[in-house]
Amino acid sequence: MEQILLFIITFLLTYFLYYFFIIRKELVEVTRKNGKKKKTIRKQPDCHKVPVEIAYLMGRYQISFVHISYSSVLYTIAWVGSLVISIVVTIISFIDGFVWQMLTGFVLLLPLTYVAFWLVGLYYQKKGRKNS
Predict the structure, then answer these.
(1) Residue 47 per-residue DSSP state
(2) 8: closest CA among 112, 86, 109, 88?
(3) Mean pLDDT of 74-84
(4) Is the predicted pLDDT of residue 88 greater than 90, yes or no?
(5) Is 52 in contact with 31 (CB distance < 8 Å)?
(6) Which pLDDT score is estimated for 35?
(7) pLDDT in tens, 93-106
(8) What is the pLDDT of residue 132?
(9) Which residue, among 85, 54, 84, has the nearest Cα to 72 in the 3D structure?
(10) What contacts 43, CB < 8 A, 6 or more positions away?
(11) What is the pTM of this model?
């Protein structure tokens, strides 16, 4: 029960951090016109300011945001990143010793992240081809 609670708390905390620091910053574009701020929802990614995850998916899997919603990709990345971090934190909580926890965390984090983004890339690649 304690491990499930740790998983849920870690997932929610990391998801909200993703939301506030990545998703909101990416989706809301603030422009100034006549001294007034105007907030608009961004439909396409700004090529110079994309998050690393989006740049990786665009480069590795040739994902185009013509037929795919940019906001759905951002939310999926936040969900997947939070899930990976929560799984790693839950697994390393079973291990005794700080050094072993850190080593195990680093060893688990890279393959899990790679596999998760591989699956996300394949999903959006297939979704982009289906909508074309």
Answers:
(1) T
(2) 86
(3) 94
(4) yes
(5) no
(6) 67
(7) 999 999 999 999 99
(8) 61
(9) 54
(10) 65, 70
(11) 0.83
- 29: which DSSP letter? E
Q: What is the helix, strand, coil percentage profile of the chain, to 5?
A: 70, 10, 20
- Measured from the Cβ of residue 30, the count of other Cβ atoms closer than 10 Å reads 9
Residue 51 buriedness (CB in 10 A; 0-12 / 13-18 / 19+): buried
CB 45 within 8 A of CB 109: no
Output the six-digit token pair for 32: 């100034």
CA distance 75 to 20: 11
Residues 69 and 104: their CA atoms lie apart, in Å, by 36
Residue 132 carries which DSSP code? Answer: -
User: Where do the structural domains in the chain lie, given as residue ranges?
Assistant: 2-131
pLDDT for residue 68 is more than 80 = yes
| 106: amino acid identity, one letter | F
Contacts of 58 (CB under 8 A, 6+ apart): 45, 50, 64
Side chain identity at residue 30, one-letter code: V
Counted residue by residue, the chain has a size of 132
- Other beta carbons within 10 angstroms of residue 15's beta carbon come to 19
User: What's the CA gap between 39 and 61, in Å, rounded?
Assistant: 31
Residue 30 is predicted with a pLDDT of 63
